Amino acid sequence: MTLHLDTLFAYLRRAPFGGRLTKLQVEGVERLIGAWDRHGSKDDRQLAYLLATIFHETGGRMQPVRETFATSDAQAIRRLDAAMAAGRLRQVSKPYWRDGWFGRGDVQTTHERNYRKVGEAIGVDLVADPGKLLNPDVSAKAAIVGMLQGVFVPGHDLDRYFNPDREDPEGARRIINGTDKASLIAGYYRNFLDSIQAARKEAMRSAQVVLPDSNPVSPAVVAAAKPDGADLKKDTTAIGGALAGLGGIGGAAAILKPVLEGVQSPWALAAFVVVLIAAGLVLTGRVQLKARGGV
């Protein structure tokens, strides 16, 4: 994917990251975009929604995490037990985490059945070792393939919500978790999509070009060095017209052609032409030079 990364992160720093980006956040976004290039689609909206989902599920870290952001499996289980005892998990009827099937990864895969389905979809045995979902590459592939193929919730995938006839970032929450925080994540989606589109436009605008000497020069430099109208490095007829005022010298273009072809720098060529044109204007009387202080 061709994106201008400076532009991408300038936009993302403002929103949704709130004015600051850490090294891990930058690395996480780059990791996910790279994985999307390998496993994803060509739809920038789908990529934006993937990133928005991961931003939400990882608490903005953009790195695979354990549920409750625990630093170990044992800590995750303790924290979930405490939350259930405090009545903060009323929607949970069975403590799924005690057997190790708590949320892991970029999109918080939960429950043994989901570990099994996702593992089969990406060719990794996540039942034998659910901790593999904390591997950044495995986690990115699991998130992308899972959301593209509707592995987490059958019938709900990225193509359903983002296609030529539909763009539904709120409804797309059903790919992962019903309608929980659907509007919030839709807001993140718009931040990511704006950033991606701006970065893509800037990449196209600032794409390098190669001059005949094979030295890459930015389009801005090329534009500044190129005169209005004819390309003077290829068309000496334009110069012939300018030289006609130099005392009516016949065949001036033919005489100077070898010299012009020997000028390799666009800047030097432009300066050379300006001098010649100025000389022609003076000699033909169209411009008169006056001494400083004259009247």
Written description of the protein model:
The chain has 295 residues and is mostly helical. It folds into two domains: 5-64 and 106-205, Lysozyme; 212-283, no CATH class. It is 51% helix and 4% strand. Strands 1-2 form a two-stranded antiparallel sheet. It has a two-stranded antiparallel ribbon with strand order 3-4.
Which helices and strands occur, and which strands form pairs?
Blueprint: H1 5-14, H2 23-39, H3 44-57, E1 65-66, H4 73-85, E2 104-105, H5 112-122, H6 136-149, H7 158-161, E3 162-163, E4 166-167, H8 182-205, E5 209-210, E6 216-217, H9 219-225, H10 237-243, H11 252-262, H12 266-283
Antiparallel strand pairs: 1-2, 3-4, 5-6
Helix pairs in contact: 1-8, 2-6, 3-8, 5-6
